[in-house]
Amino acid sequence: MEPNLPDVVLWSIPAFVLLTVIEMVSYRFHPDEDAAGYDTKDAATSLTMGLGSLGFDLLWKIPILAVYMGVYELTPLRVPVLWWTVLLMLLAQDFFYYWSHRGHHVIRILWACHVVHHSSEKFNLTTALRQPWTSATVWPFYLPLIACGVHPAALAFCQSANLVYQFWVHTERVGKLPRPFEYVLNTPSHHRVHHASQGGYLDRNYGGILIIWDRMFGSFAAETERPVYGLTKNIATHNPLRVATHEYAAIARDVRAAGSWSERAGRVFRGPGWQPAPRPGAEAAVAVPVPAPVSVEAAAGPAPARVEAPAPASVTAAAPAPAPEHTR
């Protein structure tokens, strides 16, 4: 029997709207010159991406639900939906969310989906709504839960609860919380680090509800310097279609330009910053001037001896491989 669980995202929409308005008003009356704040076009793009993701998610859910239900019917295990099992399912879902999120940062074809969420140079509550339109890459990470007997509807509830929790951490209006909360929970401070583009902050703080996974698996970084948001190479567009697809287009260009199948695979399945070692044929000759031959007269002896410098030689230096066209 399908669990009867509430649609937490639907119930949370009024709170999303209210909190966003409060944050906007707070910037109006208490501006912070150092904060990223709001930009009308940027906020509109985030809202458009969020609305578009709702439509595309309905499309992706049809085949995903079919796979989940198939696995659920095959497994003999069943997890009942009780108050305490729901808490355990939330904990387990957050654990697998951590690995899904981490995978979407370190595998480029998955990053092409997730990069949408990081494409804003602002950081406010509308940034939370900037969701991808190609989220079909997420479902495999949760198959273990279905195989253990978690009903797909219960998993959907846990995913929605996780998503709702993460809305409020997308803000600069909240500083650091008391230490016990900062140690256990994902907070605005931790998530600001996650959205930053500085080298020391890249690929850190993947946790959804709990930050303990990052502390356990070595991906935690505390907020020290003020973050600079966006990508290491920003896309400078508010066009929703380009925001949704720009990294896929960059992957296609890199794959076409690749010189081998191993490089093509690397462009797709390695990290967003990966590039191959220079190819043997990719060399540029750099001529080094050599002085003209010099005659050296022997100081003694019946006949002069001529010693000449060797003929000029070319010194070659390997040209750097072309940089990949990804955004990070």
Description:
The structure is a single chain. This protein has 328 residues and is mainly alpha-helical. Helices cover 48% and strands 3% of the residues. The chain has helices at 8-29, 40-74, 83-106, 108-118, 143-147, 152-167, 179-184, 188-194, 212-217, 240-257, 261-269, and strands at 283-287, 314-318. It has a two-stranded antiparallel ribbon with strand order 1-2. Helix 1 (8-29) runs parallel beside helix 6 (152-167), helix 3 (83-106) crosses helix 6 (152-167) and helix 4 packs antiparallel against helix 10 (240-257). The model is unreliable at 284-288 and 292-326 (pLDDT under 50).
- Which ranges are low-confidence, i.e. pLDDT below 50, for 5 or more consecutive residues? 284-288, 292-326
Q: Describe the biggest sheet?
A: 2 strands, antiparallel
- What is the string of helix and strand elements? HHHHHHHHHHHEE
Mean pLDDT: 88
N-C termini distance: 44 Å
Helix percent band: 40-55%
Global structural class: mainly alpha
Q: Strands of the largest sheet, in order across it?
A: 1-2
How much beta, percentage-wise? under 5%
- The number of strands is 2
Shape label: globular
Query: What count of helical segments does DSSP give?
Result: 11
Radius of gyration: 28 Å
Question: Which key terms come to mind for this protein?
Answer:
single chain, 328 residues, mainly alpha, two-stranded antiparallel sheet, 11 helices
